Amino acid sequence: MLIARKLSALKLKPILSLRFVSPLQRSQLFSSPSCSNPRILCPLPSATPLPLSPSSSSQPFSSKPTPPESPLLTRDGNYSEATSRFSLVCPGCGVHMQDTNRKHPGFFVKPSRKDSNYRLLTHLVPVDDESECSDLLKRGLVMEPEHQKSEENVNEKAQKPTVCSRCHSLRHYGKVKDPALENLLPDFDFDHTIGRRLVSTTGTRSVVLLVVDAADFDGSFPKKVANLVSATIEDNSTVWKQGKSGNVPRVVLVVTKIDLLPSSVSPTRFEHWVRQRAREGGINKITSLHMVSAVRDWGLKSLVEDVIDLVGPRGNVWAVGAQNAGKSTLINSIGKHVGGKITQLTEAPVPGTTLGIIRVEGMFPGQAKLFDTPGLLNPHQITTRLTREEQKLVHISKELKPRTYRIKAGHTIHVAGLMRLDVEETSVDTIYVTVWASPYLPLHMGKTENASKILEDHFGNQLQPPIGKDRVAELGKWVRREFHVCGSSWDSSCMDAAAAGLGWFAIGLKGEAVLSIWTYEGIEVVLRSSVIPDRSNFFEDAGFTVSKVVSKADQAANKSLDQSERKTKKGDSKVHVLAETSGS
């Protein structure tokens, strides 16, 4: 009775249930191997007891699933349905959300509760009623009354989802509020999170959307994923031919942002070029190839139809690609084409926008699911070393325009302070060099003997990025790579020297040449067949060349600087006059 007084009714329930148990069942209950601790009573199937002592090491038996441990600092997102029931996941980036610590990833502010009629503006009272006829009415102009807001119209508008503070800052201000918080998250382990599901011979059908940026194909091509998927296809196909269970992934290569390429590019030639580069990158078997533009809705219809046929009623679709390859933008555009499904994935020209796996349901028929995955970090891309402001200058957001030089041996072309080409030897008098990069990057052409002086005097200043002289040393060591090229025509470019995450030099010549490419140590530079054979009809002049946008920005900055200097000089002159007056 003393024990019963101290226990609550909930804890007393399993004890009272023993009253209706026979002595034989009671002895079997306490002698069960699962009940080794005599202080804890093992329940009957119909009972759900709690432990009598909070300090007990045994776990209570319950039909409810137990929440996972510390899901906040992970990148698994809401892949697992069990995890998403216990933790709130940001629908924009996939990070686990929390509202307790601003200095941890996933922080969000709970929206305040508002009255259902706050959009109807019924609480507003006019300051004064217009008693006389308005001037417009006197002049014979009758204004149509504005569409009155009603409850039906207000309710029809879909409510915006709650997102983390990072997504809110990216959507409204185009930048990350506190980039240091992302360092608290572990690196996205593709092999552990997604790779082990793809290589499994059992489970649902897998379709891999391999998303690659058309303007940075080699820099954004995920070679590690391509090799993993190709090896899985080969191994599982062998198992399947033996009559065993073999889940063979389907690879759909999606080349995004084709609107950034010039309209003169031949689709047939570009498709042949993509397949060749994909084979060299490690993909042995491509189920289908699609070239799309999520911004202009090019090629999305055929892509959606193809994916629906491949995934089936219960398969999984994995969108995989490098950072800033356009996966989230592609998924949002696909959602608009599939039954008007509106997704809320955050889009921003910032590498690493997606932080965790985001499960998107309802886009495909049946129980098929689409997963947006975090962008794969390619340390060989130059954008991984740049600041947010520098990345904006490198980012290509409009159709590429060629900038062509006709130069001789012993001359050099700089692309900002990030890349340089030296023409060392040629079998002909001159060669054509076309720069394909962001129009916001300044160029310089001059003699190779002055290249070291250009680096010392203009890197970080007139050649940006890097922005600032201090940033030049932070980017790493300036190293040289040598390439031998040959061509058979003056009319078009034959070879490209491409730097990952930046752009490329297109070389046109009828003969042979020895070139040197300078960039920072660790940045990938590849020599490939030319993707865009065309060049500009006009040649750039020697010296510094910048875009009109940058020129106007520099003029505005110099104008404001001159004005401030003039004000300073006027202030100094007034002080000097006052000093002379007081001295006299």
UniProtKB/TrEMBL annotation:
InterPro entries in UniProt: GTP-bd, Mito_lipid_metab_GTPase, NOA1/YqeH-like_C, P-loop_NTPase
Molecular-function GO terms, alphabetical: GTP binding
Gene Ontology CC entries for this record: mitochondrion
Annotated protein name in UniProt: GTP-binding protein BRASSINAZOLE INSENSITIVE PALE GREEN 2, chloroplastic
Region feature (Disordered): 51-77, 555-584
NOA1/YqeH-like C-terminal domain ranges (all copies): 433-531
Classification via CDD domains: YqeH (cd01855)
Biased composition (Low complexity): 53-64
Native organism taxonomy: Eukaryota, Viridiplantae, Streptophyta, Embryophyta, Tracheophyta
Entries under PANTHER family matching the protein: GENETIC INTERACTOR OF PROHIBITINS 3, MITOCHONDRIAL
Bias type Basic and acidic residues, positions: 562-577
Domain (G): residue spans on this chain: 317-391
